[in-house]
Specification:
The structure is a single chain. With 493 residues, the chain is of the alpha/beta class. It is built from 9 helices and 24 strands. A 10-stranded mixed beta sheet has the order 21-20-24-18-17-16-1-19-23-22, covered by helices on one side. An 8-stranded parallel β-barrel has the order 2-5-8-9-10-11-12-13, surrounded by 4 helices. A two-stranded antiparallel ribbon has the order 3-4. The protein is globular and about 70 Å long. It starts with a strand and ends with a strand. The mean pLDDT is 97. Bound molecules: alpha-L-arabinofuranose.
Length: 493
């Protein structure tokens, strides 16, 4: 029997809602055909934004959206995407699929999208191929409310009021597509560029430095040593492959070893966060600086017949397990991980929704985000898990992943992922030091009939959250039934 012990007196960090952030790059059909169809589209839209996609992200309470990349960010010149549409530059998206980018979605459209979604904007600036002046003027254009050349230009383009810009990334993957730099060189560039990300008015811009790739601990060491005092966040990118970068698997067809290998790679996030945190703590013991995991998720082979540069992949119960495990890791490290963005929101990599013409489906990953949303801004509780592992030999992984939180004084939320392909589990969750009796529990569980179960445009509800079997026992214990390969969440009070 698997069990979880939660001492409600052991309150830890606040789980920032920004752990549940999303990412929309000018890549494949994420922006065009995903969020944005344009005002004249026959697809139901509000001012050009797809209504079904807006609704889906509002349902999961999207806290922030990262844009315009990714690798696209370090090739993006923001002035190409403002002003009358007919005058905007048509260019090639060299990084992603070699298609025409007509710049019809630019700064105004992105800020409008965040307003529609009710989320905070996270813009990533161009260090790789852009100038300090260009970055500085973008921030002025967006946020300056007084008289200046950029605020005048914004007003001419129809938006007299300044916007609030919450998060700003100074480049993306500057060790790779963002300029192939060494950590030492980028650290100096970061110091220089961020100087001109000016703070106009009262609203603080949270500045995020381009961080390491996976386990590049040297990068973290150098950035923290040289630039910690100039940053609010340091990014980390880690994707879950079936095996590794050179051996990506198929999204819909895999065997049991592929499943466990994917789970093992998902659990690796724990070690990465812990080790980067250790280095950051040397320079920032107060944990002021956030480890911003602004690209994470499953990266499979593209669906057959689709543009290889569009990174379009389906999404199964396996992806849901990866999301459940990863979000539990972030919650449990919420003293350091205060922001994260799954890649990517629509039609790219591990998406929450997929679209085809006027149709949209919610993926199993969407359900996980919905099931976890009660953790947002709640207080993390220490949880100790006792479970036998699953898988075999070098593909042996923990049999249960858990995180727990309390909102207000007495609403306890627990999320669990069971990666075991065979075993359903009775899980006993014991709350110590409650000081009262539990009187109500309710929850949801997401499981598939097969490990490859997914939602399609013809069968959009094949994998959906269902009522969780949960009961209160002995006043302070909740007993739940988890099917094999499932994600569950419950709230008790
Ligand atoms: O998310 C797809 C790509 O993966 C991003 O553009 C890049 O930052 C990363 O390598």
């Amino acid at each position: 029997m698997d069990s979880v012990f939660i001492d409600v007196n052991q309150k830890k960090s606040q789980i920032s809602r920004h752990i549940y952030g999303h990412f929309a790059e000018h890549l494949g059909r994420c922006i065009y055909g995903g969020f944005w169809v344009g005002k004249d589209s026959p697809i139901a839209n509000k001012n050009g934004y797809r209504l079904d996609v807006l609704e889906a992200f509002k349902e999961v309470d999207i806290p922030n959206l990262r844009w315009p990349g990714g690798c696209f960010a370090d090739e993006y010149h923001w002035k190409d995407g403002i002003g009358p549409k007919e005058n905007r530059k048509r260019m090639i998206n060299t990084h992603w699929g070699g298609v025409v980018e007509d710049n019809s979605f630019g700064t105004h459209e992105f800020m409008g999208l965040c307003e529609e979604l009710g989320c905070k904007p996270y813009i990533c600036g161009n260090v790789g191929s852009g100038t300090v002046q260009e970055m500085s003027e973008w921030v002025e254009y967006i946020t300056f409310s007084g008289e200046s050349p950029m605020s005048k230009l914004r007003t001419q383009n129809g938006h007299a009021d300044a916007w609030k810009l919450d998060f700003f990334g100074v480049g993306n993957e500057n060790w790779g597509c963002g300029g192939n730099m060494r950590a030492e060189y980028y650290a100096d560039l970061y110091r220089r560029y961020q100087t001109y990300v000016r703070q106009y008015g009262e609203d603080k811009i949270f500045k995020i430095a381009g961080g390491p790739n996976v386990d590049d601990y040297h990068w973290t060491e150098v950035l923290m040593r040289e630039a910690a005092r100039f940053m609010d966040g340091l990014s980390l990118h880690y994707y879950t492959f079936e095996h590794d970068w050179d051996h990506k698997g198929k999204a819909l067809s895999f065997n049991e070893d592929d499943w466990y290998s994917t789970m093992k790679n998902a659990y690796r996030m724990e070690e990465l966060v812990r080790r980067h945190d250790e280095i950051m703590t040397k320079y920032d013991p107060e944990k002021r600086i956030s480890l911003v995991v602004d690209e994470w998720g499953c990266w499979h082979q593209v669906e057959p017949g689709t543009n290889p540069g569009f990174l379009y992949q389906q999404n199964t119960v396996r992806d849901a397990l990866v999301a459940g495990i990863t979000l539990n890791i972030f919650n449990n490290h919420s003293d350091r991980v205060k922001n994260a963005n799954i890649a990517q929101a629509v039609n790219v990599l591990q998406s929450l929704v997929l679209t085809e013409g006027d149709k949209m489906v919610k993926t199993p990953t969407w359900h996980v985000f919905k099931m976890y949303k009660k953790h947002m801004d709640a207080t993390l509780l220490n949880s100790t898990v006792s479970s036998s592992g699953c898988g075999k030999d070098n593909l042996f992984v923990p049999g249960l992943s858990v995180s727990a939180s309390v909102a207000g004084n007495d609403e306890y939320t627990v999320t669990l992922a069971n990666p075991d392909l065979e075993k359903s589990k009775t899980v006993v969750v014991n709350f110590a030091n409650l000081g009262k009796k539990l009187t109500a529990v309710s929850g949801e569980v997401l499981a598939g009939e097969k490990m490859t179960s997914c939602n399609t445009f013809d069968n959009p509800n094949e994998v959906a959250a269902k009522k969780l079997q949960a009961k209160i026992q002995d006043d302070n214990t909740v007993v739940i039934e988890m099917p094999a390969r499932s994600v569950a969440s419950f709230t008790a009070c």
